[in-house]
Amino acid sequence: MTEPSARHGLALVFTDIEGSSELWEQFGDDFMVALEVHNELLRGLCGKLRGEVVKEEGDAFFLVFPKPQDALQFALQAQQGLRDYDWSRHGPEGLWVRMGLHFGRAWRREDDYFGAQVNKTARICDAGHGGQVLASQEFMDACGEPGSEVIIADLARHRLRGLGQPEHLYQLTLQDWEQQTWPALRTLDDIPTNLPAQITSFVGRDKELEELADLLTDEATRLMTLTGSGGSGKSRLAQQAVARAMEHFPDGVFWVDLTPVRSPQAVVAAIMQALKVEPQANTSAVELIAARVAGRRILLIIDNFEHLMDAAEMLAELLQNAPDLKLLVTSREILHIAGENIYEMTPLPLPEPPINWQTLSQCDSVHLFLHRARSVSHGFEITSDNAAPVCEICSRVDGIPLAIELTAAWIRDFTPEQIVEQLGAESRVLTSRVRGVTDRQRTLEDTLQWSYRLLDEDEQRVF
């Protein structure tokens, strides 16, 4: 891991050629020559402006720059060079490249960079059109005044594929470019949804996120149950995976939170409310819901189902009556109904000896602790002195994300060594100091009590 990139941030750039598949089919080997001209232009400019080509995949580039001003000059000069070149000698009239610019922390692993900010940059690029340069709010803030020759267009906030929160985007052009406007961005803003906005960024679980998103988009999957222990992060993973898969559900993605629901009979009412279905006399709720979703590609996320298991039969009936509907259910228990696919979440991986404090943040449990600790103490870093107690904290709480977040929130008042002592002496470091969290997540004890109350009397006695 390269620490300066994690500590200070980097300017991240993604590029790709719009319509490259069609160009391959139309021009064949001639397009290969054009592609190499494109590659040489981008490589040369990157080196000239003190950047690094991290990865080339097909016609796409991933580049990083220590200074956002250099990244901006790269994007604008590259677009100018692409406009000036006579592409007709290789067949196509032009190569139209979209570019996404972002600024944030990224962690280096061997010859690659990884992290949420890298993914965000790729999504910004995906939203654009050929010849267009898009930049995030973070990039604009870090870059400062770009110069009078640069035209900045505020494109407002957009929901991007795979991201839980809308992103404020800007378009950057040069004054003498003939084209200054492009079609509407390729975003998720036209998809109806009530997904809750995310206040904190999603950290880790890259493998699980990819697997769950792929399962949701599989035509054979009608019901997916995301199960795991309390505090394992089921709801958050569900939200993030759904955000990544939203374009597969153009008719809507709807969230149903069952935390405040107390009776199985009220589950169907909560679903109707999310879908804005009005009750009607002489027509069952399941029939009304089925009529609402008929012929539409809709995903329904039902969160915290474990205390309402008697409503599982209603979900089975709903799936039978609404063949186009897909369900994602988060629950501490599986539903045991036909067609159920189960994805079980485990705690975050724990650091394994020998401990190298310089690469420790590559472990998901430590990465989450570091990220949440920095939200309350911006200067916090993992060092050779505190690496061992940070590992001890993650191990003491068994890699449970909720417990890691609760302990990390105390880093402003305690050192990691003191938090380890507190974990052994009392439970107040496992108590949330944040207003607005649900009662079942306010302390780790509340999370366990929630699970305990789901047991019958014999099971409670055994427990």
Description:
The protein has 463 residues and is α/β, with parallel strands linked by helices. The protein is built from 17 helices and 14 strands. It has helices at 3-8, 20-27, 29-48, 68-84, 116-126, 137-143, 206-217, 234-245, 265-275, 285-293, 312-321, 364-376, 387-396, 401-408, 416-425, 444-453, 457-462, and strands spanning 10-17, 52-57, 60-65, 97-104, 107-109, 112-114, 133-136, 150-158, 167-174, 223-227, 253-257, 298-303, 325-331, 340-344. The strands form three sheets. It has a seven-stranded mixed beta sheet, sandwiched between helices. It has a five-stranded parallel beta sheet with strand order 11-12-13-10-14, with helices on both faces. The chain has a two-stranded antiparallel ribbon with strand order 5-6. The chain is globular. The chain starts with a helix and ends with a helix. The model is unreliable at 1-7 (pLDDT under 50).
List keywords for this structure.
463 residues, alpha/beta, 7-stranded mixed β-sheet, 5-stranded parallel β-sheet, 17 helices, 39% helix, globular, disordered N terminus
